[in-house]
Amino acid sequence: MRALRRLFARVRNFATHRGDDERQREEMDEHLAMQTEENMRTGMPLEEARRQAAIKFGATGTIHEDYHAEEGLPLVENALHDIRYALRKLRKSPGFTAVTVLTLALGIGANAAIFSLVEGVLMRKLPVADPNSLVRLGDHNDCCVGYGVPDNADYSLFSTDAWEQLRRNTPEFEQLAAMESGADYQRVVVRRQGLEQAAQPRMGEFVSGNYFRTFGLRPAIGRLFTDADDTQGSSIVAVMSYEAWKNSYAGDPAVVGSVFVVNTQPITVVGIAPQGFFGDHLSSTPPDFYLPIQSAPVLANASYVHDPTANWLDIIGRIQPGVNRVELQEKLSGILRRALTPIHTFSSEQNRALLPKVHIVLTTGEAGIRGMQEQYALQLHLLMAISGLVLLIACANVANLLLVRGMNRKAEMSVRAALGASRSRLIRQLLTESVVLALLGGLAGLGVAYGGTRSLLAMAFPRANELPIHASPSPAVLAFACGLSLVTGILFGIAPAWIAATAEPAEALRTGQRAAAGGATLLQRGLVVVQTALSLVLLVAAGLFAQSINRLQHTDLRLESKNRYIVHIDPQAAGYLPSRVGDLYRSIEQQFHAIPGLLKVGISTYTPMEERNDGWSVQIQGQPDLHVSASDVRVNAEYFDSVGTHVLLGRGIGPQDTPASATVAVVNQSFVKKFFKPNQNPIGHHFGTGPKSAADFEIVGVVEDTVYTSVRWKDHAMYFLPILQRPASDKTPIDQDDDLYAGTIVLATARPTSNMESLTRRTLSAINPNLAIVRFETFDQQIADQFTDDRMIARLTLLFGGLALLLATIGLYGVTAYTVSRRTGEIGIRMALGAERIRVIGMIIQGALIQVLLGLAIGVPSALLCVRFAEAILYEVNGVDATILVTAILLLIVATCIAALIPARRAASIDPVTALRVE
Amino acid sequence: MKYGIIPVGNQKVEEMKQKSDVQQGTLGLMVLKTLQLLGPLHGYGMARRIEQISGDLLAVNQGTLYPVLLKLEQEGAIASEWGASESNRRARFYRLTRAGHKQLQAETRGWEQTAAIIARFFEVKAEDLS
């Protein structure tokens, strides 16, 4: 209590600067006067009385100090003094300060930016109640809708039926929720009823009735789902995401309870999900509407919902406390085996043998379904490593600069030591200076990080709406940057501080400049060597990634993208039944052809170089089942011409291929290579998706290998079917066959048409006002999108490589300039004795080159070694190209020469007389 | 060229030793007790009284009293105000507060206890413990 009151008084005095110095002085003066009077009364003369009084009182200076220390907070006051002094000192050498702060800002900023991404993507937990008790059933990411048995019979994707059985038989779970795995592709077309407004494409996700309860969420307003919402035949309700509610409906509370038209069906929004909830997995396109699973057949014509052989659900559960996860995993696998036993998939001999192997692996569900995490983990780790190297180089630079500064201030420190400053006081002062410097750098680095993260996010997710990853630094990032700068400051401040402070004052003052004429220390040179080595590694990496993206972008895609436009549509969302799409496609062909300058109108399920891929197993009639699958695209007559795929053999799909004519297929070269012997003519052969349907399609033509999905997918076997034809073996009613739905229109024009998008919109809404454009892009844009990640990595490594080169050059310049300034006297003597200017320049550059060559000797093998870690991301790059290596080495040597030439010229211009007078 | 020899040498400058807490505390206790006995006093008067009471045994600079007074005042044990001294000089008078009274009592008890324990150790003989 007393201590507290005292501290409070001290803090108050400190804060208000209200020291009672005046009162103290007066009090002490009076004290001395009284004592003097007293002394005089004993007969002393005035002078002696005064002297004795002063002796008795003690040293006023010390007492004053003590009094002052008692009054305020001396430790804080000293620190503040040091900081003020440090700032003054730094202001006096603006060049040094600017270079150091900038170096640190770039190093720390780059790292904090990458760390922001790592934190936002890899370390992110779902924003739900107690994420640690969530578990996911399954350990890998299968997407969308799968039939058949997964690899190793390891199930991660489940049918609606399997989920219901798992849920019913596991009291170990508080809740077991199911959600659509293909939510990132689940677009719905939405219009608010009663408003004259065009239907908008939005993201949707079908989830179970206990979805929100499993995550322990409360609605922002309204209510969330109950099990009753997810029953067949109940009126359809939806929950809207908070972000969609705020951004698209201005947070209007009347949204709750109002009717929306989703895919032409009326639904009621019953509530708004909590703020920040982005669904069960990280995505650049989080769901805007959560819809019950049982509404999927009505809204999305999803026949797979009630098909026990169709696996399409991810499952996440909240586990009861104290449940043994290993036993639970066994139990779940058993339930799944029982659920799968009667289904059609396991009726064949071959699959029946797999049944005992069917199992589920439980994984942590704290981050939900970790699709994006797996997609970006490799790249992010690589970027972390690269930015870490840049930071190392930056730190070496700062250390070097501080060392030089420390040594230059030896004389100053000696004087201060001679005047009575203790060693610890000097070290504290110097450390304060480097910590202040580092913190300034860290602060500037946060700015760099914010800007960096923003542009990184824009580069990585160019198409994101309402991205759940934000650029503003989180507490973890702030702590990371501050910690990093503090550690840098202290670590690289200690050595120079120690060197400067251990100077023996007398010696330093006596010998003046000449004692340290040896130039830069081993430590400094070592730092430059390390910097050079690291820069080389980064430069080589930059070269490799540039080469990789170059190869990717210059791959011959075997298509024609000039003056082509890709329009994504969704006839199902516009209310078309599969039996009606034929008319729609005919009107699309007719209406678009009416636009002047329009050459070809292609209609297909999907197009080259987009993410979608439909695949089926292939069985050639009369051949053994190879268990190989191929991708299929359904197309109209003008499709091949519209994307620029050439027919090599036979014919393409033509107008004669109608629903009534014989079912045909066109295959690509890889398909022929995979399923037929060399020189075997595939034309006339039949194939299907299994033994029973092997007669389904007759091959009538072969086309070249246009690249679909990704350039990295080599030997991609594909076949193309007329979009309206249904094979004889397909016995499902036509209105359940969503294979008939086209996803894209490809428009080929004679010349660039700038208003193509509005023309398209007008044409489509003339056909049907509900037919919204889901996405409109030029073909070139769509292709460029596929290289987003690779381009980002290439740009970043180039940026970091350049940064490293710049920093290393500055470091080398610093050390060389320092050496020259220390050797001024020596160079003067040399020149007085007749050394030529060119020799002096040569000598200085030689010194710098030796360090760089040493750095290269370490850097080249390291670079060769490091490439192995990046090879998985590189495209068709194996090992280091000699050109890249030589270019990187040359770059470094040129940079070295430039960095050394400036101080070398200064050295050569030394006037011997002035140089000698310096001493 | 001529070097001047600067007489700084390699002297190690020792930092001033801090006064130990016991000493500071003792002086504070003396101040409190003196104020309790004699009522409000100014700094000089207090210094003289402490000298007088302790005889010549306490060789403390008078000035060291002032930081202690400040500390006690900040703790709330004493309060001060300006007044006129016996010789009609302006002087700052210190008096004990209620909190100071309590503090003095507590510390007196503490000291007496300590003193009693130490005294017993001094009086004890080997045969007493057999």
List keywords for this structure.
heterodimer, A: 919 residues, alpha+beta, 6-stranded mixed β-barrel, 22 strands, elongated, B: 130 residues, 4 helices
Q: Explain this structure to me?
A:
The complex is a heterodimer of chains A (919) and B (130). With 919 residues, chain A is of the alpha+beta class. Helices cover 50% and strands 13% of the residues of chain A. Chain A contains 28 helices and 22 strands. In chain A, the strands form four sheets. Chain A has a six-stranded mixed barrel with strand order 3-4-9-6-8-7. The radius of gyration of chain A is 38 Å and the shape is elongated. By secondary structure, chain B is of the alpha+beta class. Chain B is 52% helix and 12% strand. A three-stranded antiparallel beta sheet of chain B has the order 1-3-2. In chain B, strand 2 and strand 3 form a beta hairpin. Mean pLDDT of chain B is 76; it is low at 1-22. Chain A binds chain B through residues 2-3, 5-6, 9-10, 23-24, 26-28, 30-31, 33-35, 37, 56-60, 62-63, 66-67, 69-71, 418, 420, 422, 504-506, 509-510, 919, and chain B through 1, 3, 5-6, 8-10, 13, 15-16, 42-44, 47, 61-64, 66-67, 70-71, 74-77, 85, 87, 89-92, 103.
